[in-house]
Every structure is written in C-alpha cells, then in structure tokens.
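Allow me, if you will, to draw on your knowledge of protein folds for a short while. I have a record of one protein: its chain in single-letter code and its fold written as discrete structure tokens. I remain grateful for any guidance, and I place the record below:
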Amino acid sequence: TNLIWLGDFNRHHPMWEMTTNNHLFTAVNSNAADVLIELLTTYNLVQALPLFIATLKASNTKNHTRPDNVFCS
C-alpha cells in the first residue's frame, strides 16, 4: 500500500525548515515534531518536497517557513 500525507502540519524541525528559522526550534516545537517524525518512521514515509522550500511567507515578518509538507511511502 502506498501512502501520501500532505497538509498543514504546523510542525517546525531542522529536517525540513530553513536554517534561518532556528528561533522556531524550541523544545515545545521539537517535541511536537517528534510525534510526527515517529509516525513517519512507523509508516515508512519520506519527505517528498525538496529540502528548504518554503510553503508560507508570514504576513507580518515576511519570514519564510514550512508548516506545510508532503510525505509519501
């Protein structure tokens, strides 16, 4: 069975977030992302989007982040 997970996961992690967003790599965000990463491992899913591609530009700060992602088996 092939799987595709995509959506606004709103999880920030160095595995997919731009390195300029290190302010997002807090313990709380890391713990939240760990739950997603565990599920990715359980279902053998890999990231389908190329690394460091932003999916959101914040309206206030104009900062580029990646809360949205695509994973597939």
